[in-house]
Amino acid sequence: MRTDRLTPSDSCHHKTLVFRHVPGLVAYGAGGCTITLGLATYGFLSADARLAAPGVRAVIILVGAGASLVMWALLRVGWRAHWKFTITADNLVAWDWISRTCHKVEWTAIDTISQRSGWWTALMKLRLNEIETSNGVRIVFGTHLLGYKGFVGELRSRALRLRGFDPHQSGLFDP
Q: What is the pTM of this model?
């Protein structure tokens, strides 16, 4: 073996797996939120809304503001679950490019993988799971992860000291 220059095939003895979300998913969500807010504002400022009775204007304001708040809250939930995961032989590396946060978790440090539920689960198919480590790090990931079933299978097979394993069974984009 050469020692002067290593090629990737020389230095990589283990397979590395990468799991990420649909490219642009957060941008699409932000666009949808902006469109909803814009339509609500247009509906409030249009001539028909100004000529309407005060009770009708109040309904337009409440529906528009409510829809916008729900959309932005869902975007925030999706934003927090937007991680890129790299699986190596020794570690799970979670990288959040939005907040520039990186967690390198050893397989023996993962305690539980559980479902997270909230008001958003009733509104749409946004189902979330949470990885909790022995040092208190919590990493939230959603079923909108590409290759979700494979990712959950890898977690199950590599995290040997799990005290609890109860993630959602199917992913949003899994067949």
A: 0.69
